[in-house]
């Protein structure tokens, strides 16, 4: 019995020793995994720091007169034959192109890039007519949520009025004139998915030189509440504007999944969206230096805020040329919070 007792004790001690060895092995493996995980994390972090996304955008003033505070947006006509879209360089477009090209060549090693963006607003739409008819206050608190008033129809997805089409024809002639004067053709055309913007782009006619413009959801007007800003189905857009005029960005949805009848995107939320869209534009694997974007007043105003350009209201059918610098800077701050969405204001009593 005594021998059996010691034998059991011996076996138990061996089991405990084995368990301890196993626990020690597990701890060693856990430590090794933790060290490897830390190394992978540090490697990933360093790798991401070596290849950062461009996150700082600046308006480079001095190329176009629109950036001068003395220029009155109400009286300056960007399509005047004598102003070359506002170009300050008296040597003309070829000299301007060389200066932009040189900026990119000199700074590319520092991950600094420059693009020229021609930001065009659509021609007058029926929603613009309605706002003029009823005034901005009543438009915002009542009429903008309806599709029409029995005489005018502006929703969903407002179309160009006859005046709007005439405004765009003026823009078309101005583009043709400046191209003949040496203006480099845009290498990329982007257009909002809303019909009035696509109509404007089509009439302007640059697609005839460059091929179809790319519809990108992020460049649409403030999303929500107003019926004029609710887009049509993808298939309906394509049925009217075929593949010779437009193409869709990857993963463009059939239905408008963003528009909401109760809430509207605020200026702060729009700025976050446009900053993201601008980042996409600069971080794409392309060498495009001259870009045309056909969009909306809200989008253009947001773009100016994002790049730090002076406020410059763009008339219907108008356009503002911009020289934009993109770079990367480290930031320890969290991205801005979008805040609460807007809702319909109360009508005056």
Automatic annotation (TrEMBL):
The organism of origin for this protein: Cronartium quercuum f. sp. fusiforme G11
Region listing for Disordered, in residue ranges: 1-22
Gene3D superfamilies, per database record: Phosphoglycerate mutase-like
GO MF: phosphatase activity
This protein's UniProt keywords: Membrane, Transmembrane, Transmembrane helix
Biased composition (Basic and acidic residues): 1-15
Record-linked SUPFAM superfamilies: Phosphoglycerate mutase-like (SSF53254)
A cellular component annotation (GO) from this entry: cytoplasm
Organism domain of life: Eukaryota
Name of the protein in its database record: Phosphoglycerate mutase
Record-annotated membrane-spanning stretches: 29-49
């Amino acid at each position: 019995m005594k021998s059996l007792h010691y034998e059991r004790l011996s076996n138990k001690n061996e089991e405990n020793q084995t368990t301890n060895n196993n626990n020690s092995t597990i701890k060693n493996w856990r430590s090794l995994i933790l060290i490897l995980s830390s190394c992978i994390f540090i490697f990933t972090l360093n790798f991401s720091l070596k290849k950062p996304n461009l996150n700082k955008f600046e308006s480079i003033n001095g190329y176009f007169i629109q950036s001068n505070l003395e220029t009155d947006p109400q009286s300056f006509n960007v399509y005047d034959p004598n102003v070359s879209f506002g170009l300050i360089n008296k040597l003309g477009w070829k000299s301007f192109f060389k200066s932009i090209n040189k900026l990119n060549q000199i700074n590319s090693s520092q991950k600094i890039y420059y693009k020229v963006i021609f930001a065009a607003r659509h021609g007058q739409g029926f929603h613009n007519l309605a706002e003029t008819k009823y005034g901005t206050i009543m438009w915002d608190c009542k009429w903008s949520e309806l599709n029409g008033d029995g005489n005018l129809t502006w929703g969903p997805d407002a179309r160009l009025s006859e005046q709007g089409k005439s405004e765009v024809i003026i823009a078309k002639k101005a583009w043709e004139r400046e191209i003949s004067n040496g203006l480099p053709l845009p290498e990329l055309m982007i257009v909002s998915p809303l019909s009035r913007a696509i109509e404007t782009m089509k009439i302007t006619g640059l697609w005839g030189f460059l091929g179809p413009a790319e519809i990108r959801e992020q460049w649409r007007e403030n999303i929500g509440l107003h019926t004029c800003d609710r887009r049509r189905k993808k298939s309906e857009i394509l049925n009217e504007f075929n593949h010779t005029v437009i193409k869709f960005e990857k993963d463009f949805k059939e239905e408008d999944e963003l528009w909401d009848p109760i809430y509207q995107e605020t200026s702060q939320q729009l700025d976050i969206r446009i900053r993201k869209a601008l980042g996409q534009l600069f971080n794409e694997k392309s060498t495009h230096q001259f870009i045309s974007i056909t969009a909306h007043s809200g989008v253009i105003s947001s773009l100016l805020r994002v790049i730090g350009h002076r406020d410059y209201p763009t008339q219907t059918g108008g356009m503002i040329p911009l020289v934009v610098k993109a770079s990367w800077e480290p930031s320890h701050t969290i991205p801005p919070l979008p805040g609460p969405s807007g809702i319909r204001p109360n009508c005056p009593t």
